[in-house]
Amino acid sequence: MSHYPAEPYKIKAVEPIAMTTREQRQEYMKKAGYNTFLLNSAEVYIDLLTDSGTTAMSDKQWAGLMIGDEAYAGSRNFHHLQEVIREYYGFKHVVPTHQGRGAENLLSMIMIKDGDYVPGNMYFTTTRAHQERNGATFVDIIIDEAHDSQIEIPFKGNIDLNKLQKLIDEVGADKIPYICLAVTVNLAGGQPVSMQNMREVKALCSQHGIKVMFDATRCVENAYFIKEREAEYKDKTIAEILKEMMSYADGCTMSGKKDCLVNIGGFLCLNDDDLYQQACELVVLFEGMPSYGGLAGRDMEAMAIGIKESVDFHYIEHRIAQCRYLADKLTAAGVPIVKPVGGHAVFLDARAFLPHVSQEEFPAQALAAELYIESGVRSMERGIVSAGRDKITGENHKPKLELVRLTIPRRVYTYAHLDHVADGIIKLYQKRDQIKGLNMVYEPKLLRFFTSRFEPK
């Protein structure tokens, strides 16, 4: 029998949540165009849309808000954040941003030239959008197993070194400004990357003068999996593993709204002095001064404290256990999910859940909508809608994985909440033949999954 550790915290404040009827939810979903992003939070019972910015902050973080230094330049909270990042991540320079995509924007602008190629271990929506906007072509070099939801291997987020070498041989190293290495890989199901793979990627890139940039958004979750699955790290602390991970990168983008345990904020880290200077010049244009970058001093203080709290073993053990608890309940009922379960979410395999709905009928989008109507649980699509269109042909990208993401916020819900989630999904699975596909009736040009609207077929 699996062991699920109890919450390593106690509840100090509560927020009432919506209790709605099925009839109300049907109307809310219709009004939202069958897009869960367009629901109002007041209409949602359990919100698993994202773990981005939905963290419950600690008492120490709330106390930190009260010592915010809101100076326009040189805030003491920036210096504290810089000190903590250097201690735990080891990078030389840090540029705060309002959130992770602000860091992605800066990195893409200072490093990419028109006609470049940026390889990575599976695309992420905003990351690829910034890369393409600046003239690059994204190339997926993740191992093949990552595109199969049922293969169970310990490090499904690893980069295929042969694919990377093949790209270098085909386009030349001078056309590859950096490799984008995500730890963990969101769209593969929150899958981790091994320390050995990071080490090998860094060595290969160094031979060709290519920089390695981490998408470090969920790096603490990745560190936990390394401790659990790579024998040589079982006696290392999360902080020690995290520091070594970062030593194999030349910089990183970070959405602090995930593993830094805050509701807003991010940063770009760099070791290269010239790149740092360029980033400082651009951050003034797009975000703010290099010492605040779109954040209040109080937010930087909360992030510094959150980084320290994030490496506590009991915290991250419980976080991973919540994902496994939900996954185990679904698996026991025969519900198809991505295996092995990752660190921040459980992903329903919409192709296997709804085999009668073609990919062009948006099965994951339809499943997410029906889950809300059934249970009041908000999830999100990660399939053909999120993948968007080819920038040259205009055709839909058709990813092999057609998923619904059930993203568990940090320190927010209990196991009892997850019981309700599982019950709703299992009920839906038992009547899955009744679920129909959708037509898209409105599509924006960029990042369409946020605001597209649909109607039932």
Structure, described:
This protein has 457 residues and is an alpha/beta fold. The chain has 2 domains: 22-51 and 313-456, Aspartate Aminotransferase, domain 1 (Alpha-Beta Complex); 59-310, Aspartate Aminotransferase, domain 2, CATH 3.40.640.10. Helix content is 39%, strand content 13%. The chain is built from 16 helices and 14 strands. The strands form 5 sheets. The chain has a 5-stranded mixed sheet with strand order 2-8-7-6-5, with helices on both faces. A 3-stranded antiparallel sheet has the order 9-12-11. Helix 5 links the parallel strand 3 and strand 4 (137-140). Helix 3 packs parallel to helix 11, helix 4 crosses helix 10 (273-286) and helix 14 packs across helix 16 (415-430). It is globular and about 60 Å long. 51% of the residues are buried.
Overall mean pLDDT stands at 97
What is the makeup of the main sheet?
A: 5 strands, mixed
Strand content: 5-15%
Order of helices and strands: HEHHEHEHEHEHEHHEEHHHEHHEEHEHEE
Low-pLDDT stretches = none
Report a brief summary of the structure.
The protein is an alpha/beta fold and 457 residues long. Helices cover 39% and strands 13% of the residues. Strands 2-8-7-6-5 form a five-stranded mixed β-sheet, sandwiched between helices. It has a three-stranded antiparallel β-sheet with strand order 9-12-11. The protein has a two-stranded parallel sheet with strand order 1-10.
